[in-house]
């Protein structure tokens, strides 16, 4: 544009573009064609001149448009029309824009790092925008709002200017500039606090725009910087001396990779050096850290035969310094080593680039950008270094994550997070000190319980094996690595010893108990005299009863709904589950390691104190004090020896694994071999208990776990006491942890590496499968009434599961009711099985529902497996309309406005009322084949749930019936019907088999309801619920609520205990 600079119109800069374009057109004498159309009656010469100006103006305007905008207005060749279209496009609603611009001016405030020139320019720009929108802003108003927006360092000036109302905007700018100059004087002393700013300033001959390398603020040098000297108590002459001495030391340093000489005094606490040679981030003061994890290692200095000590690592949280380059930012630096011997804090350039940060050079500084190209901070060159200045976010020093006596914490983890009381009792066995205020977050999260049951710790026997308590827990999802779904715990009443076994099927209980009896009666030369269990079918059956009678063992069974009678087994289950849950949570291992965690918890429980016992269980069992120095932390990193026969000559002799527990029937540890994805048992091992082995597995994250669904709290389940029988395939027992062994002294016997076959069957990336089913405790009985959310855990997925469940009689009764309903509606006829004809399978779907009075109902519905049917071959149409939510909202609004009565109904077995046009043959219902006969199938005469066309058939059926009753279908919504006689009106909408009726006349309402009941079996809902919404009619209107749905979402995502706030509906 011949040196005329007009910005490109992008859509967000219209006002600036408009001002500059008008000026450019005026300069070119082309502005007249944008303000008026072509005048009439022009001479030929004038018309030609107007046409030329119009063409030039259109060209100038289009050349200043962005590519997107140019395409939008490409077809317009009249300058005025083009200008008006652009204006109408970008100005939008003038009144709304005017209000926004006025509010922006009224809310004008200066930013903390904004210069006076920039602030006044911004204020004038807003005023200009207001003028362009037709909102007049007087000079006095501009000054008023500008002065009112001053704050921070300009607060005093603001108070003075408020008393001087005759100042112009230019005079205000001049005053702010003078005040700003006084702030930046190099000889001024500035004290900053969180709540107030106090300035002391005087003019200096040396003032300039030099940037201080300490605080990055202009117009003073480092020796005069307040930040540099705010923590020093020496005089100013002493500070200069220290500064000179330190500078001399810097000059004597011959370009080290990083400055890390020990025993040298720090120059500035808040300086960080951007170092290209540092292998990691390092900080020298604990004040920077949010939390420090202890880990001692050596760091060797480049070019020197010396080293410094790293005492831990953690996360640093700091704030960048506010400068004219931008506002201060809160930053987080991960994996920072704590090195007290450092002279400066070091920021590793290599680590930054590895994390995706971008480094750019700009004159005398280096710019650091994050992954989104956002400027984070700048490093300035000073004395051959790149220096940054951060401020720590914490006012006090960070303490190590372990207590002062760190071996207490490590033993606490080794002993499955044993409580503090029993930890003190362990002083006779291990070397730990007293720690009175020790807190463990993992314990707080994983062991929280409700009030305990009455005391169950009184001995009821006089010697070991006299009384054995037994209980079964499961099924547990996911399966363990060996395929186990259950675990059984046996408790010796006299010693308190726990014995756990892992089962793939409940039928293995008999074999396991018989093996236990034979083994331990032989080892102890004692005899089992009593067995106490609940009434589960795994314990109460003919095979076990016969065996106990022949073995002269008295079988004590608990009273139904009184699980406390077998309290020791229940307590054992709770302790093992809580400790296993804690181990999995802390180690972050996949959930399929639950059997390993329970096995580990069992062995540790046998060597830790028990309530009411003077000695630990193992000491009572074997008659001597055991040695516990072999105990290690579950899930920690273990480096094990690889035998020569299993490696090549140049292979390293060690390999990394994960500590899972202690070997069975041999002296060694159970280690998960990460490389080969299998569990081995080995004795030659080195442990690093400060590292989690899960970090080497890949994708495992605690946040995705549903630990509670894996191990449900015993105390919570005791509320309901239900046992569900689930049929499973007959598969072998858990090979890795069939039982726990109490004799594990490691002092004498060497153990060769032993691969446990069939133990690791799933690759690591498949370990953390989602939990599909909430486990149910097997030792309980379900009370007659309980919440439906808990009942859902016991719903069988198939006919076989229902048959093997404790509620089989209820499910059988529900299925017979469903068959009676099908026979009542004559859904099928029994015919011979046709040859070469596709047969549709059938399936039972079970559910538990609550009636209006809170009573639990067992529901069983027979459905057809219609997903195998092919459209246009097995059926033609499947679309079935439902009422639109907008229509339902309108009906609610009309009911509120016109004071209509609102009633809700549901049609029982709705689909069974409609005929089926296609020929469909279905296999007999599972479990009831004998009622049909051999070689017979069901030929469907009615629509049944599961067929694609059933929904449409039902819709056509109820539509035709409603039209017979005098209702008319609305054209706007196929599922809304109306009946009116002028004064009275009835509206009906339906969503599949749910009906809602709105009416202002009782007689008309009753007539329609009776007509519907004459054809269909309907049930009126007393709870006023429709489509999951609770609808309540009041005197002043109708309220809608989805509280149950919201609460179910909160429970699903573990937010039911969160703090609630009121949220208005806009």
From TrEMBL:
It comes from the Eukaryota. It holds the Pfam family rve. Coiled coil: none annotated. InterPro entries: DNA/RNA_pol_sf, GAG-pre-integrase_dom, Integrase_cat-core, PolX-like_BBD, Retrotran_Ty1/copia-like, RNaseH-like_sf, RNaseH_sf, RVT_2. The keyword Zinc applies. One of its GO terms (biological process) is proteolysis. The keyword Transmembrane does not apply. Residues 212-225 form the CCHC-type domain. Keywords: Aspartyl protease, Hydrolase, Metal-binding, Protease, Zinc, Zinc-finger. One of its GO terms (cellular component) is DNA polymerase complex. Residues 450-625 form the Integrase catalytic domain. Residues 232-256 are annotated as: Disordered. GO terms for molecular function: aspartic-type endopeptidase activity; nucleic acid binding; zinc ion binding. This is Retrovirus-related Pol polyprotein from transposon TNT 1-94. It comes from Araneus ventricosus (Orbweaver spider).
